[in-house]
Amino acid sequence: MFELRLVCPESAVEPISDALQALDALSVSAEDADADTQAEQALFGEPGLPPPAPGWSRTTVVALFTQEGAAREAAALLAAQDFFAGSQVQSVAPVPEQDWVRLTQSQFDPVAITPEFWIVPSWHEVPAAATRVIRLDPGLAFGTGTHPTTRMCLRWLAAHPPTGQRVLDYGCGSGILAIGAALHGARAVDAVDIDPAAVQSTQANAAANGVSIDSGLPDAAHGLYDTVLANILATPLKVLAPLLCAHVAAGGALVLAGILERQTEELQQAYRPWLALQVADTQDGWVLMTATRAR
After folding, report:
1. What is the per-residue burial (b if ≥16 Cβ within 10 Å, else e) of 90-126?
2. pTM for the whole thing?
């Protein structure tokens, strides 16, 4: 394969990407041309908010082609278009032969939640210090333990083990929080998600970790729970406020993640009719919020 790299302004990202796809590129991707510099920009997308920009002020667009001639022809055709103004071809180069499976695996190392509690992909040895381990490989469903929101939820579970409790993981993704609750002594764990693929992923991951979890679509959540976990995003968390709070038993805990620091106050306002949310943890611009229902 051959890689065509272009640098373009934000306004040209979409027309250039569309043109590359029309020119039979195998794939087209965009990345911040100023990544790892002072000019690096963060782009966030979240339901209910305006969509993020299609690219960065300076965007690197990378297209893959099967033949070098096709990549160079695409570069020449793009350079002749009006929308290419302000853009430039950076390079056309062969893609080195790689063991893509091994390369992908190398991007996922064991993750320490606490000194004793780790998430370990199946191809890695368990660290010597680990006494409690979640075996988890990257898959279709969200949640490998590398994201700050997941790590904060797991840290909270480690600090507040739900021994003998009934636990709900709402929006379970890969099932990582449900598995973490089961490994920390929960007597019963329900894990629900709107995505059937997530339900299947949760069951497979639970079996791989030797724990019992009941997973299903959201209507599988029923009754009261001692701990309710929801690592989603701020907008759906606000919509779900009455439903999630209704599942929290007297003396029980509500644990919410997927919230940016700037969204803290709006989440507190959304949940105020039912529970008083407080920030329990922060990491990399994200917050973990918790509340306890009075007995």
Report:
1. bebeeeeeeeeeeeebeebeebbbeeebbbbbeeeee
2. 0.71
